């Protein structure tokens, strides 16, 4: 009698959820990840992403930080609850240290700035957690460090401009102008 369980080799779970409200980017990344062997599901909103995680938690997730209906960190948090072994990457066009730290605390394994390509995403999803990043060749400027600090306090104050300005001992309008500008290099 042939034992079928000995002949069967389970393939690793390659389910991937991509949550992003930029439709062209979402479609491009989904196609690229499918050609690399992933079983891709897409969501264009936080609520849709949460529904999909609730129904079938994927092995991998790529989640945009800011979407029209909320924060991608909510999807990461639920994924961590439903499937602790899942690997998730946060994508954002608004990179700052505070949100990167929060993303990692909630279970993201990496934090990539847009535009990221499929190879960057796969590298992040499949990296060895014991690998250490190499020190930067060009460290942040003093202006960038200041901007990062302001962003961190802003996130800690739950994006309340008045509270952030009070804690930084800064005029509210000055803070609003800083927050409206792009990050310095």
TrEMBL record:
GO molecular function, a single term: DNA binding
Residues modified to 4-aspartylphosphate: 64
Domain Response regulatory: 15-129
Keyword Nucleus in annotation: no
InterPro entries in the cross-refs: ActR_PrrA_rreg, Bact_response_regulator, CheY-like_superfamily, Sig_transdc_resp-reg_receiver
Organism: Methyloraptor flagellatus
Name this protein carries in UniProt: ActR/PrrA/RegA family redox response regulator transcription factor
Keywords linked to the UniProt accession: DNA-binding, Phosphoprotein, Transcription, Transcription regulation, Two-component regulatory system
SMART domains: REC
GO BP terms: phosphorelay signal transduction system
